[in-house]
Predict the 3D structure of the following.
Amino acid sequence: MTQKILFSSVCKPIGPSVGDSASVGYELLHGQVTRAQNIYSPRVVHKQFSLDYISENLDAPSTVLHYPSKRTFIKELQKGYDIICIAFVLSTAHHMIKMSELVRKYAPNAKLVLGGYGTVMSDDELNPLCDAICREEGVQFMRNLLGETHLPLKYYKHPDISSRLRIFNLPVAHTSIVFGGLGCPNGCDFCCTSHFFKKKHYPLLPTGKDVFDLMAHHKQLDPNMEHTILDEDFLLNQDRSREFLKLCRESDLSFSAFAFASAKALSQYSFDELLEMGIDGVWVGYEGKQSGYEKHNGRDIDQLIKDLQDHGITVLTSMIIGIPYQSAKIAQKEFASLMTTHPALCQFLIYQALPGTPLYEKAIKEDLLRTGFKNDRMDFYKKCTGFYSTMEHPFMEKDEIEKMQRNFYDQDFKQLGPSILRLCEIKINGYKKYRNHENPKLRQKAQQFKKTMASFLAILPTAILGPKITFKNRIKYLKMFIEVFKLTSMTQKLYLLCIPVVAMAAIFTGFTMKFELLEHPFTRIYNYPGRINRINSRAIVKRRFRGLMRFIPVRG
């Protein structure tokens, strides 16, 4: 008998406005990286992508809920599911607990499974709430739980998942999600994702051809599609990356991809090779310059960031505050050094010990958790966000570290201006460097850069005249506007006609932010028919969104 399965993220509403800890929410950029950038903060809702990936690769049919309301979740529970799965992280564990109570009340005969990085909580804490815990690769775990046959990785089907980036509430980019792999061999002491998979890497796209074919498929769906590659250190595996590079060189396609990478991995490639692969955006861990992490072996991190952006490659970098060697003076010096590189985007997180990591084991062994977190486990989990100082520090007090973090975000915006406009400057760099390059692939990339920077003809006037911009930066953006105007074609100058629309959208964005409107996403409900039905017939994935329903053919 076929079992009915329900997957769900935690229920909305979530976020500081409803009592959650700082940075908890639906958006990584606006919630963390660009949190101090006011109306200029780019917005994108991140769904619980892993649930769709698992559902796509089960024989049994399943339903996936992304950010359901309590009412929607209860309504779905009453449909007679056999297995109910909830994904959560530590900072949303209290939401998961409330949902588990609803499961027991409205679906008492269903088996409850918990998954996600929140399952680093202890068995003593989780077992009373559920019937099973997934602490491994989710597809094979669920297939084993359902009694389905083993599915070799080469037969995994990658779901078509995408998101839309918005600036001033206007959609500006359509981005596909590419699941490159799970886990990371670098094993930084604070990293939950690395140690969750025991410092091993599990490639979901094992070969360069796998990566290329998937991204080419996404380009067929939308010729303007961009890509985000979810893999902790995508470029570390040279065999896969260089096979991907070879296929990119042989193809007429030109990708635009954002990838996670370390200084160690990036140092294996020239900037031309990165751009030939279509990688024009990277997330690089800055951490602390004296931290000694192996992933920093290679090019000097400051020079690497500068060089990447000189070649048109956008850099999002993350600095950690509160590493034991950092005094306030050292942390300020490292921040000042980072600012000289002019990164497009910056994340500043506090050094935290998360369960399952070596740092947590050290914190427990040496009694480093601050008073108040030792006995109140739920309060500790709630604050596992990177925005609270939960460990004792040799030189700095809790309030000093947290105040420093807020100041770094504020100073990043004040000194360097909105990240969206830093991106424009970087693409100007790339266009000017490659527009006359001997390599036709790189000339093609230059034209991509030109198209991107042309769109800023509609955005720059809002920053020149808009709120919270320093006089120095207003002059800079005026000069940038003139340069973009000179470099673009007559057709591309038509973006100037959009200036009034963008200005009105910016005003509307300011209004919604001031009154905390439109802060919670619509619920998305996806019904997956199961592999057997998909292979044997033209089954469809049924997707409900905002009370509407879309039917999307499933490709076998």
Notes: The mean pLDDT is 95. The two ends are 23 Å apart (CA to CA).
